[in-house]
Amino acid sequence: MITNQARMPVAKHQIEPILKGINDLIRRAEKSNVPILYIRNEFERKQILSNLLRKFTALKGSKGAEMDKRLLKAEGVYFSKNKVDAFSNPSLMKYLNNHGIHELIVTGVFIEGCVTATVEGALARNFAVTVVGDAVAGATDQSKEAALNRLATQDILILSSEQIFESENDQRGI
User: Fold this and answer.
1) pLDDT at residue 126 above 90?
2) Are 168 and 143 in contact, with CB atoms under 8 Å apart?
3) Rounded CA gap, 73 and 65, in Å?
4) What is the pTM of this model?
5) Which candidate, 40, 38, 24, places its Cα nearest to that of 77?
6) Which domains, from first to last, does the chain contain?
7) Is it the case that residue 47 has pLDDT exceeding 70?
8) Residue 60's Cα: distance from chain center in Å?
9) Which runs of consecutive H residues, i.e. helices, occur in the chain?
10) In degrees rounded to 5, what are phi and psi of residue 162?
11) What is the per-residue pLDDT across 28-41, written as a single tens digit (0 to 9) for each?
């Protein structure tokens, strides 16, 4: 969940813009019949060192592992992960392969960690990747910008949420 009381909060002023950006993308994806994939952290309690580094946030079955209630819940598929890279869940790759998805539009929190790791995981698996710059959040503006700048040096696009659906013919998974 994205809250001011989160154990690993994103920059407070990034919360509303990221929710607005992602919800707008979800609405537009639904209208365009673009698949929507939800990924959430669910760390096992036995992952002691990892949980310590994450301040025991997003433990499986806890409030911290729930999707933010302000996030639109569309027809979509949910995947959980217990590592930073969403591709650590083999069901994600199986789903993408089974549905012929080769291009991904990535949004989310902690651009410095989970988002970057997932983008790099997608690139390693030969996916075309677009990161939505105004639909990602970070711990600080500086860390968010630094992460986006690092990603910009890789073979990905960084677009705004307004630019994503300029071509209605895109067949991408979000």
Assistant:
1) yes
2) no
3) 16
4) 0.79
5) 38
6) 12-164 (3.40.50.850)
7) no
8) 18
9) 15-31, 48-53, 90-98, 116-124, 141-152, 161-164
10) -65, -30
11) 999 988 999 988 77
